[in-house]
Amino acid sequence: MTYFMLNAILTRALLDAQFSKDILNGKRQERISEYELTPLEKKALLSIEAEDMDQFIHQITNWMYTQENPSAYKALRN
């Protein structure tokens, strides 16, 4: 699975202050609808609870990592 669109969203959030604010202030669903995401990616993005962009990026990159490496994630949790 590639995460091209998720990476595009994260990059835009870092470069576009208004987009970043919208991702955090309740307009996330509207803003991510601009991208072609899988249902699983949408669910992951919408489930994130973050107070700032650092938390948001950390959570989505962790999610991406666990999707690619589930056994490594399980080992870290034990």
Question: What topology emerges from the helices and strands here?
Answer:
Elements: H1 4-15, H2 17-24, H3 28-32, H4 39-47, H5 53-68, H6 70-77
Helix pairs in contact: 1-2, 5-6
Describe what this molecule looks like in 3D.
The model has no long low-confidence stretch (mean pLDDT 88). The protein starts with a helix and ends with a helix. The protein has helices at 4-15, 17-24, 28-32, 39-47, 53-68, 70-77. Helix content is 74%, strand content 0%.
Task: Please tag this protein with its features.
single chain; 78 residues; mainly alpha; 6 helices; globular
The largest pleated sheet is described as:
none
Estimated share of beta-strand residues: under 5%
Q: Whole-number radius of gyration?
A: 13 Å
Q: Tell me, rounded to a whole number, the average pLDDT.
A: 88
Quick structural overview:
This protein is mostly helical and about 80 residues long. The protein has helices spanning about 5-15, 15-25, 30, 40-45, 55-70, 70-75.
